[in-house]
Amino acid sequence: MAWYDEAVFYHIYPLGLSGAPHENAYEEPVHRLRSLFPWIDHIKEIACNAVYIGPLFESVSHGYDTTDYRKLDSRLGTNEDLKEFVQICHEKGIRVILDGVFNHVGRDFFAFQDVKQNRENSRYTGWFCNLNFWNNNEYNDGFSYDNWGGHNQLVRLNQQNPEVCGYICDAIRFWVSEFDIDGLRLDTADVLDFGFMQNLRRLANEIKPEFWLMGEVIHGEYIRWVNDGMLHSVTDYSLHKALYSGHNEHNYFEIAHTVKRIYNDMGLNRPGRAKLYDFVDNHDVERIVNKLNERRQLMPVYMLLYTLPGIPSIYYGSEFGIEGKKEYGSDWSLRPALQLEDYADAVQQNELTRLVAKLGAFRQESRALCYGEYRELLLTNRQFAFGRFQEGESVITVVNNDENSAELYIPAENGSYRGVLTGAEALAENGKLHCEIPGNCGEIWVKE
């Protein structure tokens, strides 16, 4: 049991939220990160106890083209600003993890600049993958190299090079000593070298108790990355997809099957196993509001996010129900600048924000949701019920993805149950919990 087993994350893309320019002019620091300090109280108010914020370090443009791993992006401010941000979070009981962008760097990175200047004579030729000085590229460098995703502005690092690994590990040690961070989200973990990630896990075990490594993995058997020798967790893109398509297509079988495949077939449901990082949207995918056929489906979607096995995460702004679609092949519209004062009374006035806050508060107080066994109880195309059970605590989630209300009889231990969201009461007799759930709605039942 560690802090991340009980975490509810709030995800911030700081260059977007703070309204920073899309291109870095490398000018005097502008302290935009400080404009995010008031968001810490909001994060606490909606019952999140961890922040994933990033990317943060000096870069050319979007933050994933790093040029300096030891300096806060000048568009956001100075290292002192980041140090104070983490300190305030910790004072309020909020853990902080950052983006670790280690697969590639930006073209302004010092080692790549040395290669451009000195070509074959550079001492850093071994830092990059497949340098070819008999080739050329669109920048007319007079050589070519491996990149990420076909983008030559993202120069791939050679993670098998001991100097590169040592450089990255020293940067992480610096982040812990300088900023006191609690973990890392590893960008593009699905293409990182496995030996490199094993080195990072050994480092994590040394530098700070319960230092968490979570990797960005889009496809694949998650157990390849999530194990005692590599990462603690990965992003659960399979559940992300199932949550919106399962509602749009009135197919709760897709969601239930996804959960079963991950936590049973992959062996992640065994006691002590890691939990995956769950989300309904993030800085790379369109907002959940834009993916659902009906806005009313937001309630059951968020209920599942918080009560299924895994570690839930809210992407900034989605707790207000804001929209966001990709435009002209760009992700910037998914990463907007927001003014917190525009949402000052959201917990009181916004139904979705109030739901998110209530779900977060309950998850933090429920050991069953953090550690409990998952058990499917009822499943149809449009109704789904499951239980989480831990040391005498029984929590039953029931969701209805139909326009009409549904009268349900759910297998349950006899006794009285209380609805977490509505305060309603229900009774289980003869091994069945009887309840009626309105259309596109749900309830979480706790045995009293």
Largest β-sheet summary: 8 strands, parallel
Radius of gyration: 23 Å
Which oligomeric state applies? single chain
From the spread of the alpha carbons, the general shape counts as elongated
Decide which structural class fits the backbone.
alpha/beta
Number of helices: 13
How much helical structure, as a percent, in the residues? 25-40%
- For the largest sheet, list the strands in their spatial order: 11-10-9-5-2-1-13-12
Low-confidence stretches: none
The CATH class designation of the largest domain is: Alpha Beta
CATH homologous superfamily annotation of the largest domain: Glycosidases
Number of domains: 3
Under the CATH scheme, which architecture of the largest domain would be assigned?
A: Alpha-Beta Barrel
Give me the count of strands: 21
